[in-house]
Amino acid sequence: MTFKILTDSTADLPENWTQENDVQVLGLTIQLDGQTYETVGAGKLTSQELLDKMESGSKPTTSQINVGQFEDVFRGYAKEGTPVLYVAFASALSGTYQSAVMAREIVLEDFPDALIRIIDTKAASMGEGLLVMKAAEARAAGQTLEQTADLIESLVPKVKTYFLVDDLNHLMRGGRISKTAALMGSLVNIKPVIAVKGDGRLDSVAKVRGKKKAQTEVVRMTLEDIADPRVVIAYAGADSQEVAQVLKEQLLMSEQINDVLVLPLGPVIATHTGPGTLGLFSIAHENQD
Question: Where is the signal peptide (predicted)?
């Protein structure tokens, strides 16, 4: 029996890819200038619209997917007898994962035989997205839900994520980093490299003088211990898109890499990182600290 793959809008996967690969995306919402915006479906808020507002001084916030939304989706598949694999945003960064766990328990009370597997990716943006892609590839190759879930669980600690962020105050406002870390990032010409740690927390792992040196450093760190020939670069805004293309060329010079996807950072993650952000995502041989 085949199964349904679900993820959320923090995975930053292209809409055409999710449609072609039968992946359902549930959306977190964004509060911006007194209005609430969806991040999936018709009329959704685009990353560029969000970034333009932020550059004009707007301070958006995000809201997790609630228990009721998950319950409706899980219940629908349970009624059909369709197994579900939900590949979720890092629990350390959002309550979305816990909402899904609570909804599953509610649905299992009425449908005790329903199969609903939930994976905390401990990742964000295309770190999460890479795992969704691996799940879709495994399903297409004929793997069962349990086989696919076990594969993804084994890859979770191997996902490497590095962010270069122009203004760390966005992450500080959302409670993702400390005031001390944000202050360090404001020092003249110092560019901290932010990583998603093994437990899903954000942490500064390097402090580099100058943007170009920082960009060189994240390429070096990405190539270190890399296990999968696919790398994703996410950007927030036109300037960082140009840099992303330069980094792509640098990565492709390595014999270890044969595919570099360059994609816009989705609006939920961009809310917390701001304009000018670059993210590099890959899968390593060794588990991340």
Answer: none
